[in-house]
Amino acid sequence: MVRGYHLAVLTPNAVEFSRLVHTVLKSKDVTPSAEPDPAVIREVANQLGGLTILHKGRVDIITDGRHTEFCIEDGSPRR
């Protein structure tokens, strides 16, 4: 549904990202992790047409497949 819509921003947690990888990259299974491989996140973003993925974890990883940023700032204290 969002493939090719470069204005989309997906914000998966570890389990959601694992499912997304399985669906998009079909040949790969990724164990849910708070510290995923940034290369896999970039690959998913590229396969989806350059949309932005913000993977939430110990370190948030934000990428559109070309540029990747890491955020180590503390987030909401709700959890």
Write the layout of secondary structure elements.
Blueprint (H helix, E strand, L loop, with lengths): L8 E2 L3 H11 L13 H10 L4 E4 L4 E4 L4 E4 L8
Parallel strand pairs: 1-2
Antiparallel strand pairs: 2-3, 3-4
Characterization of the model:
It is a single chain. With 79 residues, the protein is α+β, with helices and mostly antiparallel strands. The chain has one domain. It has helices spanning 14-24, 38-47; strands spanning 9-10, 52-55, 60-63, 68-71. A 4-stranded mixed sheet has the order 1-2-3-4, with helices on one face. The longest helix is centred in the N-terminal third of the chain and has 11 residues, at 14-24. The N and C termini lie far apart (30 Å).
For the structure shown, list the relevant keywords.
2 helices, 4 strands, alpha+beta, 79 residues, 4-stranded mixed beta sheet
Q: Report the mean per-residue pLDDT as an integer.
A: 88
What is the N-to-C succession of helices and strands? EHHEEE
* Count of DSSP-assigned helices: 2
Query: What's the number of structural domains?
Result: 1
Rg, nearest Å: 12 Å
Low-pLDDT residue spans = none
Give the termini distance in whole angstroms. Answer: 30 Å
The residue fraction in helices comes out at: 25-40%
Question: What is this structure, in a nutshell?
Answer:
It contains 2 helices and 4 strands. It has 79 residues and is of the alpha+beta class.
